[in-house]
Amino acid sequence: MGKKKNQTVRAKRIKAAAEALEEQQAERIVSKTVESKPNQELFVIDTDAASNHALSFIPKEDRTSRKKKFDKQHVSDVSKVKRLIDTLGKDGVEKLAKEGAAAATKRRTRMRRTAGTARTNFDLWGGGGDAASGGGNNGKKKRNILPVMTGQSSAAGTAPMTLLATDDAANAITNDPQEQIAHNIDKDAIHPSKVQLSNKVVKIRTLTKSLSKPTVPIELAHGGQSYNPDENQHQDVIGEALSIELKREEALAYRKTPISNGLSKETLAIMVHSSDEEDSDSDDDSDDEEKNNDSFQPRLKSKVINRENKKTRVQRNKQKRTREEHASIQQRKKQKTFLHEVNEAKLRAKEIKQEERLQKERAEYLKRVQEEKRKEPLGLNFLHKLSDVDPIHVPSLPVALTSELGRKEKDDDDDENETVPTATTSLRKVRPKGSLLTDRSQSMISRNMVNPKRGANKFIVQGKKRTMKGGKGREYLLI
């Protein structure tokens, strides 16, 4: 058996050596054929384009699709050019092509511009003409900007302005018709109604006008605030001024009142009574301790068992049956109630409709109140409204006191004495009341044109306040 195995291994080695020898002979023959050929046959110069070489790797289907796409694009371009020629004509197409070429050249020169060769196409000082000759705007006609009042009320009650570009705007606002004709100016072109605005601005102004409240820039003074007022009107204004001052006094008194005024009499009485009882208890305890020290007698504690409320087994069973019967009665009652609820669906629906009707009426009432409040003009009775919000800092209502008016009594022989509302002083001796600046500022605040001054309120910051340290970019930071 061992002899046959060695023979097979030997045969395999002989076969592998023969195959290697054949490969070497084949390589030697191929190399001899290449070495015998001249260089012209071995080396070839590629004279074709690289695209042709790349096309050889593209499948035939892709090449056909590309060709069809190119032909289709070519046909569409030709049709577009024909359409332009029909609409603009040959001269128009040539002009358009020249403009496109000029724009492309301008873009290329802008990208390749070197430093120091740039030239401005406008005049910094607003002169006319070309930039090379000291002018600007590339020879275009100068257009001025004119601010025009639009007449539309804004949220704050002011009339905003818009900027309108017009020719010779400075001369357009003149009222001389001959000058307008000389400058060929249309006066209606700058009229607020003829101003061309964007849709966005028009929508915003329409919404603002619909939501804006009516305002009263100047509130007419009451008749009682005159230097020679009617007696009844003067007393009415005095009452209004007095109500503002009373609110101020109440607010000041409330601010000066401390949070705690100490303990009440009832609390003090309870505390004194409790302290007396504690003293008496402490005295009794001290006496007991002295007695115990004299004669120590230990006392045994015995647990008292109350047998009066103990129930027998019959009573406990009876209570158990009673509880079970009560539970069954409650269960039957729930079932009966459920059946009644199913039968009373119409009644429940009626109650729901009634509740919905009440809610609808309330919503309509609130909407009506809000609409009335929105229609209420701003700027009326602003002192009374401010007295409800800030009674301490509200200005006083400007009105002269009765003693300051200089009234005198007129005696008649026939009639009884009566007070005549006539002033003995002249207008030069009238003492002014109030301040025009304060009145205007408060009126603007009530019309939401100016933000009110923030009071000196103390802001409580919870937590640790972070401090910023000086560093890069914060060299001048004040901490």
TrEMBL record:
Stretches with biased composition (Acidic residues): 276-291
Subcellular location: Nucleus, Nucleolus; Nucleus, Nucleoplasm
Transmembrane segments: none
Domain of life: Eukaryota
Keywords: Coiled coil, Nucleus, Ribosome biogenesis
One of the GO biological process terms: ribosomal large subunit assembly
UniProt biased composition (Basic residues): 312-321
A GO CC term assigned to this protein in UniProt: nucleolus
Residue ranges of the region described as Disordered: 273-335, 403-437
Coiled-coil parts of chain: 342-375
GO MF terms held by the record: 5S rRNA binding
Family assignment from sequence similarity: Belongs to the NOP53 family.
General function of this protein: May play a role in ribosome biogenesis.
Name assigned to this protein: Ribosome biogenesis protein NOP53
